[in-house]
Amino acid sequence: MIKFDCKNCGEKFSVPEIHAGKKGKCPKCKNIILVPQIQDTSPLITQSKTSNQKSAPKDSPHGLTLLDVPKKDKPKDQSTIQEYKKELEEEPKIDQTEPVLKRKLPWLLDIFLYPTNKAGLTMMGIFIGIPLLMEVFVGVLNLVASQFPPFYVVAVFFLIVNLIINIVILFYKYWYLSECVRDSADGQIRAPETIAATPSGEMLSSFLKIFVCIIIFSAPIYYYLSKSKGIDRDFWSLFNFMLLFSLVVVSEVGKSGITFHLLLFFAVFFFPITVLSVIMFDSFRGLNPLLIVRSIFSTFVPYCVLVLLLCVLWTPMILMRRFIVTEVISGRPGLFLYLPGAVKIYLMLVAAHLLGRFYWRYQDKLRWDV
C-alpha cells in the first residue's frame, strides 16, 4: 500500500501500489492529487568494521522490489564501494508527473474534436437520448390514454417522472461542463470519463454557481430592456427568461442605444473569466471583482482571443435556439428539436474545453490559489 497526504488539506490516503503515479480528486477539498511513485528508501548498506562479516539487508515496504528493479550486488570490498554508489546515482529516476498529451492536429481544429471520444459521445447520448426516449414514451402513453381514458393516471405519473428526469439531467449537464473545465485545466484534450464517479450532491451546487453567474451578467440587460422597451413582466418568467432572453438581446443589437451596448459588452467580456474563476475555485469567492480584473489585465491579449473564440461558438448556439423557439411556437413535433439541441450541447463542451485550456496555459500569470 502507498500512504500519502493531500498537500492542500492534509487528508490521509492509503491506496494499492498499482495506482502509483495516477491522479484523482481529494474527496475533502476537491483538489487534484497525485499518488506518489514508489521509491527506494532503504539506506545504502555500509561496510561493517569487520570485513569478514556480511550485513543482511532488512525488508522495507518501499524497497526496490516494488519498482520491479533488480537489486544490484553489494560491494564486497572498499575498492568497489565508490563504483557501487556511482551506479546507484546513475540509475534513471522515476518521473512522478504524467506526460502532457499532445494534439495530433492544429489546435484550432483539434479543439472541435474534444467531445468525440467515447466519454464525450456517451455524455451527449445521455443529455439528448434519455429526454428523447422519455418524450417518445410519454407520447405513446398519451395516445393509449386517448383511447382508454383511465390510462391517463399512468400518463400523468410518467409525465411527472419525465419532468424530474429532465431536471436531474439539467443539473448533471452543468456539473459535467464544470468537470470538463477542470479536466482541461489539468492538461487533458478530450472529454473526461466521469460516469462511475458522479457525486449527486455536487450537481445542484455546480448548476447554482453557473446559474448565478448568468443572472449577474444578464440582470442589468434585463432591467434595461424592461424599463426602456416596456416589455411585459409576465414575459420574463423563469422559463421564458432561459429560453428567449438571448434571442431578445440579439434582436436589440444595433437598435438600442449606447447604454444597452455597454451592458452587453460588459456581460460578454467579463462572463467567461468569471465562470472560469467560480468553477476553478469551486466557490462563489471566484466572483471577487478584484481577482477577475487582475486576471484579465495579466492575460489581456490571450483573454481577448478567448472571448472572440467563444463568441464564434456562441453564434451558432443562438441560431440553434432560434430554430428551437420557432419550432415550439409553430407547434411542430418536438422530436425535431433534439438535433439542434445536440449541436448546442456539442458546442458547449467545446466552450468548456476552451476555458479549461486557457487556465492550463496561463495559470502562472493568473496566480490563482485553487
Describe this structure in words.
With 370 residues, this protein is mostly helical. It folds into two domains: 2-34, no CATH class; 107-366, no CATH class. It has helices spanning 81-90, 107-110, 118-147, 152-185, 200-228, 238-251, 258-281, 289-298, 300-330, 338-366; strands at 2-5, 12-15, 23-25, 32-34. Strand 3 and strand 4 (32-34) form a beta hairpin. The radius of gyration is 28 Å and the shape is globular. The two termini are 29 Å apart.
Note the main attributes of this structure.
two-stranded antiparallel sheet; 2 domains; 10 helices; 370 residues; mainly alpha; 4 strands; single chain
Q: Write the H/E string, N to C.
A: EEEEHHHHHHHHHH
Distance between the termini: 29 Å
The average pLDDT score comes to 77
What is the topology, as strand order, of the major beta sheet? 1-2
Low-confidence stretches: 40-76, 91-98
Shape: globular
Number of strands: 4
Q: Beta fraction of the residues?
A: under 5%
Largest sheet: 2 strands, antiparallel
- The helix-and-strand class reads mainly alpha
Helix content: 55-70%
Q: How many domains make up the coordinates? A: 2
Question: Rg from C-alpha positions?
Answer: 28 Å
Please tally the helical runs, counting DSSP H or I stretches of 4 or more residues: 10
What's this, in brief?
The chain has 370 residues and is mainly alpha-helical.
What secondary-structure arrangement, pairings included, does this model have?
Elements: E1 2-5, E2 12-15, E3 23-25, E4 32-34, H1 81-90, H2 107-110, H3 118-147, H4 152-185, H5 200-228, H6 238-251, H7 258-281, H8 289-298, H9 300-330, H10 338-366
Antiparallel strand pairs: 1-2, 3-4
Helix pairs in contact: 3-4, 3-10, 4-5, 4-10, 5-7, 6-9, 7-9, 9-10
